[in-house]
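Trying the structure run again after the queue cleared.
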Amino acid sequence: MHLNSISTSKKIITFAMALVLFACFMTTSSPRVSHAASAQDIDISVNVVLDRFRTEIPGAAEYLQNAKGVLVIPNVYKVGFFVGGEYGEGALLVGGKTVDYYNLIAGSFGLVFGAQAKSLVVIFMDQDALNTFRDSLGWRAGVDGSIVFIDYGAGASANTDNVRHPVVGFVFGLKGLMANVSLEGAKFTKINK
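Done. Tokens:
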């Protein structure tokens, strides 16, 4: 019984430390809180990510050409210690032009240590899926719609023939396209810039 209470105390302390770490990160490092990006900053970062997308993913141009809309979040920051969170700001492009700005907020549990950054490209291949996203007051992945993430290996081609889904996503880390990605429960909300 004594060992069980020590184990429970350690879990509570670990959870409390994770919350403190996350709160510190959000108040000191979050782009929204401490140095909110301007619309121009976001647009420049979006263009950089789209250039990287076209360069690194064979078949990316076909996705972009057939897209009804493209949401790009250039910097999704993830931080935590067992319990973590993710935050990023980006732009929704329709016809190659920015129409709205969005943020992404997500929580995560499990083996999360330190801080990471990644870029997210979400492509709406279906007009109804895009309309649902734009009309929502806060679109939740896995609830309001699902995103199929593409994680092709070296030499594979991403094309619209071998993946048919209304919403597809690509996530880039420092070393390229990331595999085994999920944004289940992540919330995308329109923001004013």
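Strands lie at 69-94, 97-124, 139-140, 148-149, 167-173, 176-177, 187-191. Worth checking whether this holds up in the mutant runs.
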